[in-house]
Each structure stands twice: as structure tokens, then as C-alpha cells.
Amino acid sequence: MINQSLFDKLDFHLIKVLHTVLTERSVSRAAERLGMHQPAVSAALRRLREIAGDPLLVRSGAGMVPTDAGLRMIDPSADILRAAQALFADARRFDPAQERHTFRLIASDYLGPQLLPELVARIKALAPHCPIEVHPLVDRETSYRQLAQGEIDVLLINWFDPVDKLHGTSLFDDEVVCLVAKDHPAVKQGWTVESWLAAEHVVSQPAASPQLGAVDSHLERLGLVRNRWIHCPYFGLLPQMVAKTHLVVTAGRRCFERFVDPLSLAILPCPVPFPRINFYQVWHDRVHESAANCWLRQQIYEAAAPLRTPLS
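Below the sequence we write its predicted C-alpha cells.
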């Protein structure tokens, strides 16, 4: 029976020395092949002999030959080396056509219709065995925690805090405009800052949310408050609400343009100057070097390419 205390001293380097010495049948040739000094290989061989309780390699005439125990170790040691090579190769390899991997995303309701259909089509075509889970955006703290704990692979959001362990790249940007019904008085009259603030606004977030959205956060920095008449977390419903009322919704132009003709809506400039909205994909340091996550991020970036074209 093998001495456990000796076996515990066995490491990958010794396995490599073992296989090389047994196949080269020479300590000097093994040292040359391993890029080691000969005394170091001899010392490693002594340790291996002690662990095995066998000489492993003995002199025969002018050369050396493996013992019976040594011969039995050649194939298993080769298997261990190949397995180790495959283990670390797999860490940096992702074959989308063959892999079975579930991609988990968080996407805001605003961003989803513009990006997700194209992304899903790409993944379905290129990685047919990789299902996709799209989770709703809750809040920053929860989203960041889900990234850190491996529950989510990538966030698709319109904010990015450069906090520790997070990475992000910009996908596209957008212009902040107002969407109203074509018969809204502002279409003919225009509006001042005061009349815009006083208009009845649709806010695209839950009323109980502890955080202000991008529009109201900017207004707060300017010392302004708008008339938030209705809160609705479902961004896709806002154009229909606006079409039947004199409500106003303020957000990115790209999201609104597809609703203008079907719902008889109008896009108006906002009287309060807003910085452009940037949309990001965000991931955690935990998957920064992951081959699967790198591939997913590349697909997201390419799916967003049409959204980087200039607005008409």
C-alpha cells in the first residue's frame, strides 16, 4: 500500500518528470527536454522512487530501461498530462456550435425590444444548444449582486457605475426626446420649460422604486421637478397610453421611432437639455476571461450594431 504522506507530496511537475524520464529512458535527455538542470531531474526521480517504492528506471548495458512498475506508469502518466492540458484548454475555449450552456441576461424593458430579438436570432443560429434566460431589471444593488454571485452573465442597461470588479462597454447612445399624440397642443404651440414640467408625464418605473430614473435624476440635479402623473414599469405600454391621451413620455428617440406612424404620434424636442443616454453591457470580473462570456459579449455588441447608426 502506498504511503499516504509520500503520495500527498506528488504534484503535477513530478508526473511530468516521471513520464519524460520513462519515455526518454535517460535523465540527461529528460532534463534537456524539460528545460531543467540534470541534478534537478535526478532529485525529482529520487522522490518518485521513494513514493513508488520502486526504482522505476534502472541501468541496462550502456543505457537505462524502465522497470515493470515504470512501464505500467507510462500510459497513465500520459493520460494525466493530456487531461491536465485539456482541463486548462477548456477554460479558454468555447465552441458555440457544440457547447451546452445557458446564457442569463438582465435587460431593461426599454432596451429589450431594440436589441433582444436580434441577439436571440444570432445565438439561436450560432449556438443552437445554448438556451437563453432574460431576467427583468430590478435595481442596481440586486443586479450587481446577481452578477457577483454568478446568477447573471451580463446586464443590458442604460447606466454603468465603475465600481470594483465590474466591467462595461458602451453599446450605443441615444437622444432624449418627448413622445406625444399628434393632436397634443405642444405639437403646434411648442412648449417652454415651465409648460413641459407642468404637463402630465408618464414615468417608466414603478411608483415604489427607491431610485429616480435617468430623466428625474437629471431634473433633480437641475433643481427641477416634473408633474409625474402616472408611473408604469412596462415601457412597451407607454406609446399606447400616450396615443389615447395628452400625456407625455420622455426617453430615447430610437425606442419611439417605430411607434410614430402606427399610433399617430409625434416626436418633439425636449425644452430641458439632456445629455445623451448611453446603453451598456456590464459584467463581473468573475467572467471577464470566460470564453463563453467573451463570446456572448461579442454577440451582444454585434447585435447592437444597427443601433450605432446615426439617427435620421
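The domain at 103-173+278-308 is CATH 3.40.190.10 (D-Maltodextrin-Binding Protein; domain 2).
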